[in-house]
Amino acid sequence: MMARLLFWLIAALGTPAAAQVPAPEPVTIAVPPLPTPTVTRTAEGDTATIGRRIAEVIAADLGSTGRLRTLGPDGVRAYAFPEATGPQFHLWRATAAKALVSGFVEARSDKRLTVACYLFDVTTGRELARQGFVVAPPDWRRAAHRCADSAYAKLTGNRALFDTSIAYVAESGPITARVKRIAVMDSDGSNHRYLTAGESTVLTPRFAPRGDRLVYMVFTAGGTSLQLLDLASQQSRALLPGGAIAFAPRFSPDGRKLVFAMASAGNTDIYVAGADGGGVTRLTTMPGIDTSPSFSPDGLKIVFESDRSGGQQLYVMNADGSDQRRISFGNWRYASPVWSPRGDLIAFTRITGPNLAIGVLSPAGTDERVVTNAWQDEGPSWASSGENLVFHRTDPASGRTALYTTSIQGGAARRLATPQDGTDADWSAVEEEARR
Amino acid sequence: MNGRIVMAALAALLTAAAQPMPMPVAVDPAVLRAEFVARSGSDTIFFAGDSHGLDQAARATLTAQARWLRMNPQVRASIEGHADPRRTREYSLGVGERRANAVRDYLIAAGIPPGQLDLVSWGKERPVATGASEGAWALNRRVVTVLKR
Residue B103 — pLDDT band, cuts 50, 70, 90? Predict the structure, then answer.
């Protein structure tokens, strides 16, 4: 169907996993402004303006992955509504574009908008994908993310990642007295909102697989606790009995269990419990600090870090705690492992002296490589694509932190704009997939 | 806090504490802490690298802290462990607990009832010194005995 374009992509991108640096040549995709059949005023501006903004969001999304280079919406030929479904391919072939996103925005009589988008192979003139949405005007951005997701999934063969949320810890104030709040935003930084008020220090928000709940750690006058936050009601409740020093929580892929670390008598071990905090079961018993557990996407295994051999190293065990095996053997420390939603890789923080960097390796411990290069990059979380990561970077001089995204294919990390400093990012699954 | 008032109160307390006797419950927390620090040498002990071992200076301080806590059994203490920022957040929480636990064990061995002591790990979330230097990191690798009354 799209054999020629696919062939072109494979030629450009299908380099072996071991030879990912420098980044593969991105495919160029044109994203001109979406036209409108009739310019109509809406609560979000007129339909022509919305069409341009949708193209801006699609181009920003696609360009953020490291896989695609975008043309437009500025500086490319704008077309009229009738051309949305029948592009002038000979004109696009004169550009660097190998693919084209077209579409239109139309106001409906019920005050909602129709947003349509199409993906074309410029070389063959074939239509590769089409999407149509009927949305309230304020939701045009969501339609744009879905258009970008459709194009990205079709062109790369990866799962979509733009119609997603990122939860993180928003930090403000002096380094010695930081105010930390849980915040959530769309994956491009829009629709930002705070979920806690900042009176208590909070850490490590992590989404439930459906994206409807977050588990996080809070420091209170009585000690620390793990909290479960329902995003719809904004209500939080403690998961474990008081007095437990529990941290590093994550949901299982089916959302029915939580895995976390708990410290007692100088020994930190991995535990699992029901998603309501009941039925706490200890999985590791070795002396030392076992922490940062993360389930494999099939739920059968757990990767975690442990300093049982001296420095921190990565271990994989069965979900019941049996068959614990060390998988990392580099001459440095490995921390905060996270299993990819695709299952093929584990991202981690590599520690060499005071330097922290994000790396990936296979679940068997092979094909290790580093994907970021700064003073301190830590806390990776995967996008549903299995190819993109969000993490936080600390500035050595100021101690200030910011969120960045990067592709494991290589290329520079991109700063994700947030109102305050950010740490501990967690990238949700795609909302449509998560709700199935 | 008014320094002269604290000093005056401190002098009175030091005189009174020559004999073991329970502290009146209504004492200002700052006064209580000043007296604790004056008697123990410090409310803070420090650690090397990722270690939770207590060196000679730490043991001397904790021995003095234990003496004060024994004389003031109505004062609860929170043993709060911290790590420097060179490691990851979720590991540092374990390091802080390991350090706080080492201090708690020492104090219990020195005769403090376990129920008088709470334990908190702040990981690397509450640094007292900033900057990427060994000097700053060394100040952050600490356990603080925080009086709660």
Answer: very high
Q: Rounded to a whole number, what is the distance in Å from the CA of A306 to chain B's nearest CA?
A: 9
Per-residue pLDDT reduced to its tens digit, A378-388: 999 999 999 99
The H or E element spanning position A414 is: strand A414-416
SS3 A47: helix
Asked if B43 and B34 count as a contact pair (C-beta separation under 8 A), the reply is no
The reported pTM is: 0.87
Determine contact, residues A74/A88, Cβ cutoff 8 Å: no
Q: How far is B11 from chain A (nearest CA, A)?
A: 31
From chain B, the residues in CB contact with A245 under 8 A are 93, 97, 119-121
Q: Do B125 and A219 touch (CB under 8 A)?
A: yes
Residue numbers in A near B94 (CB within 8 A): 261, 263, 268, 289, 291
pLDDT at residue A1 is higher than 60: no
Q: Would you state the structure tokens that stand for residue A237, as one six-digit string?
A: 């409740």
A200: tokens are 């208590």
Q: In this structure, what token pair is assigned to residue B145?
A: 């005995």
A62 in reach of chain B (CB within 8 A): no
Alpha helices by DSSP H, listed for B22-140, are 29-40, 56-71, 89-109, 134-140
Neighbouring CB atoms inside 10 A of A312's CB total 29
Residue contact A266–B97, C-beta within 8 A: yes
pLDDT of residue A26: 85
**CA–CA separation, A227 and A379 (whole Å):** 20
Residue with tokens 């310019």: A39
User: What burial letters (b/e) apply to A159-170, b meaning 16+ CB within 10 Å?
Assistant: bbbbbbbbbbbb
Question: Would the CB atoms of B95 and A289 count as touching at under 8 Å?
Answer: yes
Q: Which residues of A touch B123 (CB under 8 A)?
A: 247
Domains and CATH numbers, chain A: 2-15+161-434 (2.120.10.30), 31-156 (3.40.50.10070)
Nearest Cα to A135, choosing from A36, A55, A42, A31? A42
Give the model confidence (pLDDT) of A117-143 as tens digits: 999 999 999 999 999 999 999 999 999
